[in-house]
Design a protein that fits this description.
By secondary structure, the protein is α/β, with parallel strands linked by helices. It is about 20% helix and about 25% strand.
């Protein structure tokens, strides 16, 4: 059965996107990452929020623009959207509620991961009790404001188990 994994690149001060959803800051940190490279073939489906799907692209102006993992992955995508676009998007199913999005992405992923993209969808998966793992690539930058990795407003503690820690600095981060 599929596992739900929330993966994100995060600034040292806890943001996955800058103000207004800006993810252009990630462009300096794209490149080979052994942990992410290992995750890609283990991903059976993507479950993304509409802001993530329709938002900025860290690969803007580069090969792989508009594609998951910069074109490194291909497969079924499910986007949680209350107002889907008028035009059909090849390979993408727009789903109006989290329960249906979870069920459809789980079925499509088979025994692989459903890779959750977007803070709001990740929080909804956590609240629904389906979020199994969180993979955070901490990036050496301070954004100061934007979208946090998690907005956890109810004040309840959520205990997580640390599975592993690895260190990897992309070439551009070592300048």
């Amino acid at each position: 059965m599929a596992k739900f994994l929330y993966s994100a690149a995060m600034s040292l001060d806890g943001f996955i996107a800058g103000p207004g959803g800006d993810v252009s800051w990630m462009a300096d940190y794209l490149g080979p990452n052994p942990v992410v490279d290992e995750l890609i073939p283990q991903t059976g489906a993507i479950l993304a929020g509409n802001r993530t799907f329709a938002g900025d692209d860290p690969y803007k102006g580069q090969p792989g623009e508009g594609e998951v993992f910069g074109g490194g992955w291909d497969g079924p995508q499910f986007v949680l959207a209350h107002h889907p676009p008028a035009d059909e998007v090849q390979g993408v199913s727009f789903v109006g509620d989290i329960g249906t999005a979870i069920a459809e992405s789980r079925a499509a992923a088979g025994d692989k991961y459903v890779n959750v993209l977007g803070a709001s969808v990740a929080a909804q998966c956590l609240e629904s009790g389906v979020l199994d793992e969180v993979l955070v690539s901490v990036t050496p930058v301070l954004l100061g404001d934007g979208t946090r990795l998690f907005e956890h407003r109810d004040g309840k503690t959520v205990r997580l188990e640390q599975i592993s820690v690895s260190a990897h600095l992309p070439r551009s981060a070592t300048r």
